[in-house]
Write a structure and sequence with these properties.
Structural class: alpha/beta
CATH architecture: 3-Layer(aba) Sandwich
Distance between the termini: 35 Å
Strand order of the largest sheet: 2-1-3-4-5
Length: 154
């Protein structure tokens, strides 16, 4: 009987001592890119979910989802894949970032396959980071996530 009680006690304490995985939402219009980002984060002990940006999604929809889901970190595509009337494709993500900031202070990293053209504008509008999709992305991705969530890799 003592062995069983000790096992239950030890198992309970080890369960309680496991680190809580930080929740990360990945919003991108290209499923391949969004899924890769989520997969890399999940392999690094995050609880990441890819949430597609669909064609014709209204401005503010991502911000609403974020305020409901309450993730610890968000990766947001700079480009939404289909320009809204009166906005360039790259401005969609920046405009959504402003809407997110109206509802939440969750750290947001802008993601682009382009270049650093909009980096300063994204940071000025409230982004916490800017990630270029490419060869060094896996290392930069995890470094940014760790820095912005305070999670450490074990």
């Amino acid at each position: 009987m003592i062995k069983i009680e000790r096992f239950i006690k030890d198992d309970f304490f080890s369960y309680c001592m496991e680190p809580v995985r930080k929740r990360v939402d990945v919003y991108h219009y290209e499923s391949g890119v969004g899924e890769i980002i989520a997969r890399l984060l999940n392999r690094s002990n995050y609880s990441a979910e890819y949430l597609p940006i669909s064609r014709g999604m209204p401005l503010g929809k991502v911000a609403e989802e974020i305020s409901e889901r309450k993730p610890d970190l968000v990766f947001l595509s700079l480009n939404f894949g289909s320009a809204m009337i009166g906005a360039s494709r790259s401005q969609e993500g920046l405009e959504e970032l402003v809407k997110i900031r109206e509802k939440s202070q969750v750290p947001v990293v802008m993601v682009t396959g382009g270049d650093t053209t909009y980096r300063e504008e994204a940071l000025r509008r409230g982004a916490n980071g800017y990630l270029l999709v490419g060869q060094s992305m896996p290392e930069e991705l995890i470094t940014l996530a760790d820095k912005l969530t305070g999670q450490t890799q074990s």
